[in-house]
Specification:
366 residues; mainly alpha; 15 helices; globular; transmembrane transporter activity; MFS
Length: 366
């Protein structure tokens, strides 16, 4: 956008429009997938996604009116395939009630966070080293290819729930899911904040070319903890695990406010990343059992929506703090987000109690 229009603000505005559209459409698409089946929703959605994506790129390149640019950008955002939520539902369908389900959900959370952390860096790299549209085109292409490959796996698709899903209440009517939405929002804010603040920190200490190393340190910490978390068989209730990991991040993020050396910062970033994945894994694990079975896709999509909103919110707020007070202070945005989520989880523990029919599942405890 900046290359064709000369305006960063305009690019940010279109990105915001796409994010809002994604947030609005995500739960709707999840509900449709629960009702009609995943492939019947995903394939038509991909067609609109591709057309909207081409329309957006063409309208920017040809200098069409801004309302067309915003409309096509928002439509593309609204039609982003919710593959992440659908994959989790398939794992739930295949492994429900077994100790292997948390491991599968853990791996999905690790992949999600890896994409949220590395994806923007890759797109920026491609856009700045090649053609200005190469980053966006690559992102669109990967989304389409991945979605088609996923849709081809018909044998693992869970059955549609038909009108039982459509006529029932929204998954968000489940009070516990609203608590988990806050957790997803906090985790997204943490990721969005760290991505901006780490790059700004590297720039401030005169090592901007090493910003990718800091991002990699965050990804390593998060991935290692996510994999480890999914392989451990806990005895404590999952709601208490969630209650613990959020304050742990608060504590581990405090050194980021004080460090002023790149090489000292790296191990502290790894440690901070350790507490991120377990929060998201616990949220998805709880969502699967708190909502009615016919609304699981919608529930997962709500958390994914919260995650996306949080990333945008964290990046925006952290960017402003960097401009006003420097990179170290910007890390405080992530600390506050985790603290607020921790307070909410502590205050509403009773809403996260696993229903009686799932209480005997080893992976959930009580």
């Amino acid at each position: 956008m900046q290359d064709y229009t000369g305006s960063y603000a305009l690019g940010g505005g279109v990105a915001a429009a796409g994010a809002v559209a994604t947030a609005i459409s995500g739960p709707v698409l999840g509900r449709l997938a629960d009702t009609l089946g995943q492939r019947r929703v995903l394939l038509p959605l991909l067609v609109v996604f591709v057309l909207a994506g081409f329309g957006f790129l063409f309208s920017v390149r040809e200098g069409w009116p801004l309302w067309i640019v915003f409309a096509t950008g928002a439509l593309a955002g609204a039609c982003i395939p919710p593959v992440g939520s659908m994959i989790r539902v398939r794992w739930t369908h295949l492994l429900r009630g077994t100790p292997r389900l948390p491991t599968a959900l853990a791996m999905e959370s690790v992949v999600d966070e890896f994409v949220f952390i590395v994806g923007p860096v890759l797109v920026t790299f491609l856009s700045t080293t090649g053609h200005t549209t190469s980053g966006v085109v690559t992102a669109f292409g990967l989304a389409v290819v991945g979605s088609l490959a996923f849709a081809a796996q018909a044998r693992t698709e869970p059955p549609a729930h038909g009108h039982a899903s459509r006529q029932g209440p929204s998954a968000m009517r489940t009070a516990g899911l609203r608590v988990l939405f806050v957790v997803g929002l906090a985790v997204g804010t943490i990721l969005g904040t760290l991505e901006i603040a780490l790059v700004a920190f590297a720039d401030e200490v005169g090592a901007k070319s090493y910003s990718g190393l800091l991002i990699a340190a965050l990804a390593i910490g998060s991935m290692v903890s996510g994999i480890g978390w999914g392989t451990v068989h806990f005895t404590a209730p999952v709601r208490l695990r969630l209650l613990v990991v959020l304050p742990v991040f608060v504590v581990l993020s405090l050194p980021l406010l004080l460090v002023d050396d790149l090489w000292v910062m790296i191990p502290f970033v790894v440690l901070a990343g350790v507490a991120v994945s377990p929060s998201l894994i616990s949220a998805f694990t709880l969502a699967e059992v708190l909502v009615p079975r016919v609304a699981v896709t919608e529930a997962f999509t709500w958390i994914g929506t919260a995650l996306a909103i949080g990333v945008a919110l964290g990046a925006s707020v952290a960017g402003q703090v960097v401009d006003e007070a420097g990179a170290n202070r910007a890390f405080l945005v992530a600390t506050v987000a985790a603290a607020v989520a921790g307070v909410v989880v502590a205050a509403f523990q009773r809403l996260l109690v696993v229903p009686a029919e799932h209480a005997g599942t080893p992976s959930l405890a009580r």
